[in-house]
Amino acid sequence: VNAAKNTDQVFVVQPATLVDFKSYNLYLPIPFETSLRVDYIYLSDFETPLNFIQMDYRINDTSMNGTRLLQNGSGANLQLYYTGSTGTAPSPIGSLTQQSVQINGNGAQTLNFGSPVIIRKLTFNSSRRGVRFLARFDGEASSAIDVDLGDFFGPFQGVALNGNNCYFPMPAQSSVEFEIQGAVPGDTWNIDIEYETKSTFEPNWRYFHAKSQGSDLTSGHTPYQIMYSRGSGHWVGMSLYETGHDHGGGDFAIIDAESASPTLIHGINGEDYFSFAWFGRGENFPYTEAFDNDAGRLRLHLGNPYPFNESIHLEWATLRNESPRSVSFWYQDSAQDKTITLENLPGLEWDVFGPTRVPVVAETGLPDMSDPDAVFANLPDPARLDAREPIGVYRILHHRQDGEYRAWAKQKSVGPHLNLTYVYRHVMALGKLSYIGYEPRAMMARTRLTSAAAQTVTFQITRDEALELFLNGEKIYSDYDVYNGFSTTNITVNLDAGENVLLAKIYDTTNVNQAHAALSLRILDGGGNDISESLRTPDTSAAQLLARQWLLHETIGSWTLAAWDFERDTTDSSGNGHDATPVGNAQTTTDSERGSILSLDGNGDYLDVPLNVSEKSYAVSLWFKTTSPNGALFEVRNDDGSGHDRDIYLEDGNVVAYLWHEGLSFITSSGTNYADGEWHRLMHIFGTEIGGQKLIIDGELVAMNYTAASSFNAETRVLIGKSNFPIPTFNGLIDQVRISNTAIIDGSGLLTGSDFFIEDFNSGSPTNLETTVTGGVAGEHVSFNGMNAAWENIGDYRQYMRTVGSGYSAVAGR
Predict the structure, then answer these.
(1) What is the pTM of this model?
(2) Mean pLDDT taken over the chain
(3) Please, are residues 196 and 94 in contact by the beta-carbon 8 Å criterion?
């Protein structure tokens, strides 16, 4: 390391760093023309026998042809030096022009340059979490930059992000528009830029993109989704927050997943990706910065970006019940935002199971791959899982934990890619044996494909280890090789009309993709078109249908903290006992459209409810009707009224929602007058699982920002029709108020309004709504006893399992 630090070279800024007994980082490029071999010699006196090596490399790069890295001496006298070409320094940046814009509160400002430019520096006067910063280039309607301002700058002090300064180059042909959302009254945002004027916008230039993402309460099974974008470009890094202990987790990059040649990049462990093992902290400018796993870590691939031609998909594996956040940085051939939101990610629905042990030969500790039957011998017959019989599985969480698994788990692929690495919350053991990816294991996945007619299709299969595929009970493919990297094969398959059952048996062991078990599947028609989504079969099992009917009837069932339907009075219709007390002239009456409703006259009347609600994940919904442009709809507050939060009110016909999180955070609708004498349904939700707070009216998302939690925890009451803000009490009608201690989501994302307000069954009625928790992992498999089988026209929906208090519920939504 010391020799590398003293090497005279121009290829990198900082050639080496050292964190004592934790990480040794060498950033000296080693040129090669045909091959490169690296030998690692284990030193027995090293502090720990658990060692990892991670290398970045680039092929088809001739920039250092003729150069060699050599050494002289040894020990303290070791010297490293280059011979041959020494390379050339980057071209200097031309003269820069400075320009400033100011945005007061929320709003947008456009800068017109009149010629191509490269923005070299972007500076804000301040930044904080919960404020959303957007940038649009060259008149594009969608935002290339859409980030939480606090997470965008983070705590970093490096070459790309430093304080409130951003040095990522941002090319534009003629203009850029900056926008701020989620600010509070009195905020002033001074944005200074320095840009270089160019005569032409070069064909190979790419637009800068950045995207914030977040998730609440990770499952430990499926990785956290950082980004999924279509298009062509190169990914240059990310920042990551609140991951907790991610040893054994880490980075997955699936490049061009929707192409004929998908590529996978997967590192060793989370901390190794940031080049600071064992939770080391420090900086390797310009490559990495690590404060800690929660406060923030940054990795930049400025020298070795990830190029993609059709799509790029980034995941991060975490333990259970973490709430990670991230910001991705990349360059793309278009200023258009081509990312796919989490709720709209494509993919097939899979039943998944595992892992089980694979029998090994005593002499080698590895299975006999010449005996394929032995490789998958411990996987059960799928019928046993359908019958919910207990099956032995194991997980590794610092040590091996054996257990039982009943029935299949549910997992949706992300695009074509099904990542089974953590199918049973499986992470690395901290000891002499790194079980994950080392101890051979097997898992199984099943999906159903519905074809309108019999047809011949092509299965494009990508994997890195042994695989068997069965279609409708017959083996259609097998390969028992272990590959150093992804390998893609196309096979011709005949699908029957109606439902086809595809079963995959997957083997995992140590190879270049350490700790990775996955299958990527694309289904192509005769013209080469991907028809996977059109073949996806909704799960219509009895438990699923009952779960959906329960949702329709009970309005999110046990997620509902309190509900008021105003059927003759103001009692809590959820059965939880949170009855509302009318104040002033508040009274129930009858409306020709909605039946029994709440009537408020705007002269100080409202409902008062003793109630404590969640600060971390929350939803409130209600119907309202008014012709008064200003009026309060909802608020939570403390007993004496000195503090309040979660206010919702009308101001000049717009709907405003407020959340206190280390300061004021407002979101507001615009462009529609909701004081029009018509009924409107409203939902205000927040939580990291939906990426912030959102305001949904009549099923449409009308406003959002990245404030995902409340800092106000002194609430003891809920007021309906009143606010502590200088807004009149509500004058109009209110119906069906619901409060939930979770942001309402399903397996694919947000329930956007209509499902939360459905009042009637499609047909029939549920009976015996008793839930029975089964399975080795409590709450992860829920069956419903009692079934009325007369339901029809269920439509497409997804299932989402969530812990509720000390019990568990299964909830389905369209």
Answers:
(1) 0.71
(2) 80
(3) yes
